[in-house]
Structure formats: structure tokens, C-alpha cells
Amino acid sequence: MMLHPYCKRVEKEISKQEIHQSLNTMVKSFKDRGYKILCSSQDAFFIKEELYNKFNVENNLLKLYFNGLRALPRRMPHIYEHLKKMGLRNEFVDYILRKSSYNGSWRPWAKKRHDKILLAIDKKEKIELLKERNNKNIYD
User: Fold this and answer.
1) Pairing with 10, which of 24, 27, 91, 100 sits 20 to 30 Å away (CA)?
2) Cα radius of gyration (the chain)
3) Shortest CA distance to 35 belongs to which of 21, 49, 25, 22?
4) How many CA atoms lie within 13 A of 83 on its CB side?
């Protein structure tokens, strides 16, 4: 979940550095093998397509992505730093860190600003879902 959910496929050398492909790339790849996404947080979890209807699963990729950020908000500084080392960015993580006043010290930030972090995630999700609704091809 380090990359923007609709980031294009990254090179193998980058993905070997603990930077998984974007959710969209993974969803497309697993679909070809008969799997659908179940959820995502630090990792993405997939299930055989024939079992998919047994679960109440969000089918909007952006919502799944933001639910994953909510599950482990304290990881965002790690994501930011890891991507930075590779010369990459994630505009969603950048926005959330900025809006929640991240100061470079993740433990106190995560503890003191938990509510502010979640509000920033909620706000960014609303912005992105509105963009998606107004322009279905925004991320293609």
C-alpha cells in the first residue's frame, strides 16, 4: 500500500525494495488468475472469484485503499520515507502527513494526532471519490 492506488506498474528493481505494485496493478494481475481483492491494509488480500460473494466487500478501489490507510495510519511516515529513498511519492500520504502536522517523529505524532490523522484520511478520501465520480477516467 505504499504507492498511489492507481500508480502505473513500477519496475522490478523498485518492487524488490519492499514497494508493492499499486492496488490497481495487483487487482488486474490477480483478476487474470481468477482472484478478486478482499481487503488491503499493509498488504492486499485476494480470494478466489467464486468465493467473493460470501463476503461483504467494498468494490471501490479508492475506498479499499483509504480503509487500508485507516487500519494502520502510523505507517504513513514509513511509507513516505521509503518512497522518498526510491525517488517516488504518494500524493495521498503526502497530503495526510501535511494535514495532520507530521513533524518527523512518528511515535508521538501517531499517538497525539490519531484523530487528526483519521480526519485527514477522511477528507482526502472524499476529495478523491468526488474526483472519481466527476471523471470516471481520472486515473486511467
Assistant:
1) 100
2) 15
3) 49
4) 22
138 has pLDDT over 60: no
Nearest to 44 by CA among 60, 59, 12, 22: 22
Write out pLDDT tens, residues 83-118: 999 999 999 999 999 999 998 898 899 889 999 999
Dihedral sign for Cα 28, 31, 33, 36, please. Answer: positive
Domain extents for the chain? 12-134
Q: Phi/psi of residue 86, each to 5°?
A: -95, 0
**139 or 73: whose pLDDT is higher?**
73
Rounded to an integer, the average pLDDT of 46-68 is: 93
CB 38 within 8 A of CB 48: no
Cα(130)–Cα(134) distance, rounded to whole angstroms?
Answer: 6
